[in-house]
């Protein structure tokens, strides 16, 4: 027997006093749009993607770089369509039959981006994204925000702010 | 219902269709002269051989050779658009102010004053 007996209530009260407020430790999540160009997979921040378009006729215009496919009519608004392959430094390829156009907004501009396929749109923990590989080739190195593994593929998270700003400045 | 429409003259230059506001065009003739400016070259496209029409442009009636067909039409304002920013930034052609969307494609609208350096 102790000389100074304490009650169960006192012990629990002490426990309560020492325990701080309950902190919500939910991890930050990022919405990502994951796309593929041939065997290469890329991701964009979901808040930069306005819409995913399919079966959208593209109108050719002369005097544009080869990577600028033309314009599309999106419910009465005209948007340019850029082919991502040359922008990301990938070799040319035939357009995939069921390819998609991502309508993206970044750097104060809006434009369509041609991709082969949209693989998924999902929420992913921010901690799942690792720093980009330092061995990435240019121009991908300048545009990659990070890398994440998804369905067994290495997926590069691409900075659309840089893509659009560089494209406007004629760097791609 | 279309609220407004713009009278446009459309023509061919460098193998592609273009248009300009009809108010800039004073007339058209078929007789070419040495020294006529070629619309394709003014815009920045290679000259394409073929039959030519001469548009008389501006108060001075400056002569610009274009390819046919030359057509006058009213284009609904709802089909006229500013250039998308990335396209405007990368376009290599001169004098392009806007674009028009037809059922069969898109056409650049050029500003003759810019083309002719006025």
What is the arithmetic mean of pLDDT of chain A? 90
- Tell me the CATH architecture of chain A: Beta Barrel
Gap from first CA to last CA of chain A:
82 Å
Beta-strand residue fraction of chain A: 35-45%
Distance between the termini of chain B: 36 Å
Largest sheet of chain B: 9 strands, mixed
Which CATH class of chain A?
Mainly Beta
**What level of helicity do the residues of chain B show?**
10-25%
Fraction of residues in β-strands of chain B: over 45%
Radius of gyration of chain B: 14 Å
Specify the structural class of chain A.
Answer: alpha+beta
Largest interface: A-B, 26 and 24 residues
| DSSP summary, beta strand count of chain A | 10
Q: Strand order, biggest sheet of chain A?
A: 8-1-2-10-9
CATH topology of chain A: OB fold (Dihydrolipoamide Acetyltransferase, E2P)
Offer a concise description of the structure.
Chain A is of the alpha+beta class and 172 residues long. Helices cover 16% and strands 41% of the residues of chain A. Chain A has one domain: OB fold (Dihydrolipoamide Acetyltransferase, E2P), CATH 2.40.50.
Identify the notable features of this structure and list them briefly.
heterodimer, A: 172 residues, alpha+beta, OB fold (Dihydrolipoamide Acetyltransferase, E2P), five-stranded mixed β-sheet, 10 strands, 41% strand, B: 118 residues, mainly beta, nine-stranded mixed β-sheet, globular
What is the topology?
The complex is a heterodimer of chains A (172) and B (118).
Chain A: H1 8-18, E1 29-37, E2 40-45, E3 49-53, E4 68-74, E5 77-83, H2 84-87, E6 100-106, E7 109-115, E8 117-125, H3 140-143, E9 144-150, E10 153-158, H4 160-168
Parallel strand pairs in A: 2-10, 5-7
Antiparallel strand pairs in A: 1-2, 1-8, 3-6, 4-5, 6-7, 9-10
Chain B: E1 5-13, E2 16-21, E3 25-29, E4 37-38, H1 39-43, E5 52-57, E6 62-76, E7 80-81, H2 85-90, E8 96-102, E9 105-110, H3 112-115
Parallel strand pairs in B: 2-9, 4-6
Antiparallel strand pairs in B: 1-2, 1-6, 3-5, 5-6, 7-8, 8-9
